[in-house]
Amino acid sequence: MTTSGNSLTGISSDRSNNTKVKTCKTHGIMHEFMLHKSMSDNFITSLRDQNRSKFRHLFIQNPASGSTLGLNHQHTSTASDNVSGSEKFRARSLTIFGNVEESASEFCRFELLRVLDLQECNDLEDGHLKDIHKLWHLKYVSLGGTINNLPRNIEKLHCLETLDLRKTKIDILPYEVIGLPHLAHLLGKFKLGKKDLKMSELEKLLPKKCKLKTLAGFVADENAGFLQLMAHMNELKKVKIWCEPTGADSKSLPHISKAVQKFAQDGMDTTGVRSLSLDFGNSMGDFLGSIQEYCYLSSLKLRGRLSVLPQFVTSLCGLTELCLSSTNLVGNDLSNLSKLRYLLYLKLVEADLRSFVIKNGDFPSLRRLCLVVHSPVLPTIGKGALPYLVSLQLLCKDLADLSGIKIEYHDCLEEVALDSMVSTKAVEMWETAAKKHPKRPKVLFLKRIDPSEAQSSVKYVAADGPIPTKGSSIEFSQVQLTQNMLQNECIIRSVQSSSVNKPNSALKKIIVSEPHQTASELSSAGNGAMPPSASYA
């Protein structure tokens, strides 16, 4: 699908660092049309549909009690009330939103199921998964934030390729999971159990030909099991590690350094995607200084304090994407990044970047620059620097003006992205500067999403425009009132409608393709292991 951000098509999208679309959201008429078309073509339907056995993609939406979405349903009975005990389903994918209610008892009825998406379930319990092993065709499973433990019998899902646990509360990963023979993408944040196994015993847990491509990720603590196993995961392309040293001696740090070096050196024989993300937590990331050999990575993310920029970073071969967050690096250390002459994307998330100077000739290949700062004082960018810059993201809600940035220096510039909370004055100044630029770059706005965890990185998503300040509260209230009236009118109309086939505005959360965000992140790590139906990090 081709997406755009204009109001005619009603599609907004979020893009990854390589500009590929990760997720998109349709609005209004376009959403209703796509939903109606998908249903009429027997592509997707609700479990309440009487012809459900003919469809390959089913969804169940049971809003929580008291939710306004409940007004949009044709009747209030649960999905399971309409299912015959002898009914056979052809469905290959099942997505459930809201409260799972009685629907959990129907999982095992879908014997041909390949994709099970439960990320948005509000009341899913560990016990609901007790029979999941019976769905032995499953290739993709995603679970939501109410799950605390995985059943041990998950080891029977021999066809499973993607297991997404990022929204769950699972801290300890059962050893049985890493033994799944076809597992290619394992997503979450977990540790191995406290069970003390020798290296020879750990190796036996892995299948003979481990197919794991994405391990994002695990917590490195006193149990070095994951770090040791990484050496035997020959297909790994994407790794994320949270450092959690215990005690003053930080015994895990040497193991982390060794595992990182092995992973990066194994990439020297390839030119493909190889991504590493390290979160130092409360420790220092200076252990990377012990890596002296040349290594290969295409993407590197470092989060946490650094006393100096490690030589490991500037000597990486093939590095095209770099993200540094909360490192406290200043001055010369940041300027040394200019040695990365083939860098295409640079993101810096720091409290203050005023000492960062980008000189003439620096970053000759850079296409996209993202600066997330607390202080509205931006780096100095000289004329002749960043000659091929296409996208400039300046994310600071206190940005009051152009802050010394001269976009006329960048002949190839196509877009400027600002924090949606910036002042009206700043918006006007940037839009004026964009109009004077020969290429008239677009001025876009990104909305800050605070992380769910205290130590997670701040994220931004596409916004329709700047968020009105208090000075325009009267105008904003009028717009909000109009929107509320339109929404109420839509609800009334949907209640009056009795046709099942008519598009339902309550289903705005339905995803026409099966799994969501995950796949865009995984596709870069390797296409071979993804479910045929999973269209994507």
From TrEMBL:
Name of the protein this chain belongs to: Disease resistance R13L4/SHOC-2-like LRR domain-containing protein
A biological process from GO: defense response to other organism
Domain Disease resistance R13L4/SHOC-2-like LRR: from-to ranges: 91-442
SUPFAM superfamilies: L domain-like
UniProt feature coiled coil, ranges: none
The entry's keywords: Repeat
Taxonomic source organism: Aegilops tauschii subsp. strangulata
UniProt-annotated stretches for the region Disordered: 518-537
Top-level taxon of origin: Eukaryota
InterPro entries reported for this sequence: Disease_R_plants (IPR044974), LRR_dom_sf (IPR032675), LRR_R13L4/SHOC2-like (IPR055414)
